[in-house]
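Exercise 7. Given the components listed, write out the predicted structure of the assembled complex. Treat all entries as one system.
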Amino acid sequence: MGGYGDVELIAKDGTRLDGRSVDELRPVSIEVGVLPAARGSCRMTWGLNIAEVAVYGPMEAHPRKIQRPDRAVLDVRYNMAPFSTSDRIRPGFNRRSREISKVTAEALESIVMVEMFPRSKIRVEIEILCAEAGTRCCGITAAAVALADAGIPMKDLLVSVAAGKINDVVVLDLDKAEDNYGQADLPVGILPNSKEIAFLQMDGDLSPAEFDLAMEYNMKAVDEIHKIQIEALRSKYTGGDN
Amino acid sequence: MVNIVPRLLKDQLTKLAEKDLRIDGRGQFERRNIDLEIDVLSNAEGSAKVVWGGTIVYAGVKFALREPYPDRPADGSLMTSAELRPVANVKYEPGPPSAESIELGRVVDRGIRESGCIDMESLCVVPGESVWNVNLDIHVMSDKGNIFDACALAGIAALKTATVPANRFDIGEDHKLPVNKIPIMCSYKRVGGRFVYDPSEEEELGGSERIHITLGDDGHVHSLQKGLKGTFSTAEFAEIFTNAGKQAEELRKIVEEMVI
Amino acid sequence: MNEVYSGAQERLVIPGDRIENKGGLSAGSGIIKINGGFVATQLGHLMENNGVIYLQASNSTYIPRSGDLVIGFVTSMRSNLWMFNIGGPFEALLPMSLSPWNTQFGDLEEHMVVGDYALLRVQEVDSQHGVVCTMKGIGLRKISTGVVEFIGSNSTKLFIGAEGSNLQKIKEKSGCRITVAENGRIWLEGSDEGISMIRRISSHFSNSNTPYPNPDSIKNFNNDMEDL
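Answer.
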């Protein structure tokens, strides 16, 4: 959240710079089974974002000290490729990626039935190949699909999406410019069937009324993205004619 | 993760080799199918995706301005790195870059650098003050064998498509990065006693030493690397060196057709 | 999500799909109860049998059960046991006492070493997923000839076919001995031509993008079976 409203991002009639309306998502597409070496995988494009996710396991958790006697460990890594942003990212330790990996793992733990695989480990590798705001949402949403593709038992899928505020107007799914000059960003992760919230972050400035509206936009978008997740998983299995 | 080689696999590879067969039905010097796509990453100034059998690699080019080194005031630079992240295969564990990952990056780097495909003086902006550093990053997404060749191919294809973002740095017009050669790497692996080209994942597991050869446009060799345990004869090397010349020509055509 | 589940007709479900329970059915594998309703937990086909609704997962990791015939390879050894990779999330152990040999403590490498394959039976799986195997039993032995291929535990049913029809046909045409283990590995013995024929057929499962039978792999497999 950078410039706080001094850049015109939205016209009087509610049209945004890229032509979207206030509650409209960028184009989203999902394809499963894209990485032959992985047990389950998924490629998601969301606007200009590209995320590819590989799932490995469940397998023996090594070293032994990370094993949990009652459940599987979800070992999640969110990583941005060096060429994914306009300024190159140096490979290696990165506080932002560490935090996103942690909250992503915790969000996915709400859906994965980890208790079925005590002592084992499930690896989720999220690689962001191109980043244009909203990569954590893209990564979480794609990870849920890759886990389903890998046949990992889950009680629901997970959809992550963000609403925010630009020029004092609440809008859905901020793009790069809106993220840079916007006033707030509210990413959430929702279980699409039960509508429970498994992931929540926010930064910026929102009134209680604005928060409610942002959540309303998010909830509506969850259903839209959930349909795309289902379609991607189904078409893999039905050869695209379902 | 420790890679255990099932003994049956080794026996089987040896048996097949005696009849001049390979485990996936290919001939000794037959390669898998290659798909090359360019300009696939909108935030990179040049990019390529290589799907080589089941191996998938992305390469992206980024530019930055820097002060030249005092002894070479008019020379820019090229930094090539290849990351072997745990996404690529169950056998790669998280943690700092492994020796394997570093070897991959350095071998790919040498082949491209030593071919002289980029004239470092062409990267000079103001002599003694400012030059371009070209970062070529290669990202392996799926390892089903022979990542070396796939990385080298993606790398040179990404460089060939790269645009120098001079406009964004307020130092003039964007222009194509001049890349005037196409170095090609060809990798061979000893499997069941003899060398094969373009080893698959199973052949890498059950084979022994590997040899990487990078050839320039004129057939000159620009980098060599022998990896893993094992020895080979000069006659064996002569055979694969001759074969590498043919393979490189075919691969160079794939790049030329894609990048005009 | 409240699609009506229509008896015998199987349908594809996604994790989280609600499944209507019309007639006092009980939940089988892959189905959980949430707030009294049934929910699918994996991508796969919904099936019904004897009043149980269950899910045939399209891609699931091999979970060992006692009595399973499995093919494993030795990953490490201690002085009185071998550890085996059997393809599932947990390694299995074979104690010296359940091997077919009269082994002395510390002399295990005389019989099997790291990298050797064996045909085993799962003896016991404890609540912590500790897996104990045995090599005492008819046909159980060290595998020192032939080839082991992977087709995936989800593909074995298809590979075998109705009442063993596919397997019988493959055996006849290839002239090979074939042992299909429950963990998705198959052991082939016979001529090189026979083995490469079987490998071509099984590659529809092992070399597809995913280790489970997708529509393309099933179609190609069935075509090959007709062409045999």
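Discussion: Chain B has one domain: 8-258. The longest strand of chain B covers residues 130-142.
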